[in-house]
Amino acid sequence: MTFRSSTTTARTSSEVRAVARTQTLLQGQNGIGTVRRTTLPGGLRVVTESLPSVRSATFGIWVQVGSRDETPTLNGATHYLEHLLFKGTAKRSALDISSAIDAVGGEMNAFTAKEYTCYYARVLDTDLPLAIDVVCDMLTGSLIEAEDVDAERGVILEEIAMTEDDPGDCVHDLFSKTMFGDTPLGRPVLGTVDTVNALDRARIARFYKKHYDPTHLVVAAAGNVDHDTVVRQVSRAFEKAGALSRTDAVPVAPREGRRDLRTAGRVDLLDRKTEQAHVVLGMPGLSRTDERRWALGVLSTALGGGMSSRLFQEVREKRGLAYSVYSYTSGFADCGLFGVYAGCRPSQVHDVLKICRDGLDQIASEGLSDEEIGRAVGQLSGSTVLGLEDTGALMNRIGKSELCWGTQMSVDDMLARIAAVTPDDVRAVARDVLGQRPSLSVIGPLKDKQADRLDEAVS
Asked: 252 lies in a domain?
């Protein structure tokens, strides 16, 4: 399947550039860190961040479609499609796609999330034209052959089995189900064995045609890149597929979500013969546009974001009850999650849950100390900068920002927002979020009496 227009022929590159709209979103010093956006005919957005001091570049295409856009019978279609786009186009076979990037020492991969999908390649700066051509060809010219659908089904079923064999990973899928129930946000990104087995070529091809329109795409490149050159190369690749013929098309707005999905006080136990019990205790969090998310990030860091965090000290260092214990936040378009994870011996699960629940309640009512908040601000600031020290991370930042917020924020602005968080801000968000009644997900071999007591953690 390719993007084709039966009524309009592809325009020349000069014609495309004549109507393209380019903006400088962030102005760096001496060109370093400058972020520019060009909107091409057809509604395709191209954003770049220049970092001339490096010798690499990462190129990616973000798609505003994720498992949240699936009906119950299509659960897993977005991830299935992600696999199939690597299986071949009219121009390249699956081997041609992988060998082209391997031959220059590059990396290529993709990932599917609840609300978006991303395909990317990281290469030397001199090989960026190749990466652009290969990734754009995959996105616009995938054949989605029936035999590839059948062959890849087995691979995806193995991926589902691999996830289910890792209870520390699987428990987070269970927690989403606990919190959101049988809704798109509550269903697994990979789908289930039944839904994957039921998907066929025709249904996946329709899903591709519906969601992989240029108006739903953001092209992002970061590293030693020249914006105008990237725009020309992307334009050429999409023009060949007939994807830029709609002159009236405009990019879709950032996702707003459908409704605020919330639940509380639920307990889900998945009985597995594992060596550890894996638990997630949590509650509704904040959406990714909520201004309080900066304070919530500081709160999560202080609570369970490192070796000096309160939960790590209480659960692991003082009592030796768990090897891994941490807190985390997930923000969606209209809602979010806040969770605390721990893996421990089944006999210790109630002790761990009591410490975690008591800790959440105490912070909700009393807040954190100024010292804890100050340390968390510093830790979050440092990890934010260190996490953006490669071109892949930069591409992810500008691509996701364009797709999910429609704006760009510089690293300095991000650090300023974190530094501006006050102890009162953290205490207020702690009352709002941690003061809610939690829900609980558990995977492990709990005995009947242990299982019967799980309600204590959410009462």
From this structure: no
Six-digit token pair at 218?
């953001």
Name the amino acid, one letter, at 353.
L
Query: 174 Cβ partners below 8 Å, 6+ apart?
Result: 268, 270, 280, 441, 443
The half-sphere exposure of 128 on its side-chain side, counting CA atoms within 13 A, is 24
CATH number of the domain residue 271 falls in? 3.30.830.10
pTM: 0.92
CA atoms within a 13 Å half-sphere pointing along the CA-CB vector of 317:
11
Residues 190, 191, 193: CA angle, nearest 5 degrees? 115
Number of domains in the chain: 2
Same domain, 49 and 105: yes
* Pair 190, 316 in one domain: no
One DSSP character per residue, 146-185 reads HHHHHHHHHHHHHHHHHHHT-HHHHHHHHHHHHHH-SSTT
Active site residue 389: no
- One of 49, 82, 239, 402 is an active-site residue; which one? 82
Determine the Cα–Cα distance for residues 343 and 164; give it in Å rounded to an integer.
16
On whether both 226 and 291 belong to a single domain, the answer is: no
| 276 phi, psi to nearest 5 deg | -115, 160
Identify whether 260 is part of a domain: no
Beta-carbon neighbour count of residue 340 at 10 Å? 28
The 10s digit of each residue's pLDDT in 137-176 is 999 999 999 999 999 999 999 999 999 999 999 999 999 9
pLDDT exceeds cutoff 90 at 247: no
- Distances in Å between the Cα of 117 and the Cα atoms of 52, 145, 169, 418, 442 are 28, 21, 20, 28, 28
Structure token digits, residue 71: 């009906």
Report which of residues 4 and 46 the model is more confident about.
46
- Report yes or no on 75 lying in a domain: yes
| 210 and 296 part of one domain | no
Q: Are residues 275 and 235 in the same domain?
A: no
Q: Do both 315 and 226 map to the same domain? A: no
> Residue 116: exposed, middle, or buried by beta-carbon count in 10 A (0-12, 13-18, 19+)?
buried
Structural domain span for residue 185: 13-240
Give the span between the Cα atoms of 232 and 242, in whole angstroms. Answer: 15
Question: Do 40 and 163 fall within a single domain?
Answer: yes
> What confidence tens digit (pLDDT) does each residue in 38-92 have?
999 889 999 999 999 899 999 999 999 999 999 999 999 999 999 999 999 999 9
- Do 147 and 212 have their domain in common? yes
Contacts of 248 (CB under 8 A, 6+ apart): none
The reported pLDDT for the residue numbered 30 is 67
Hey, is 26 helix, strand or coil?
strand
Closest CA to 398 of 389, 409, 414: 409
Q: What is the pLDDT of residue 7?
A: 32
Domain assignment present for 385: yes
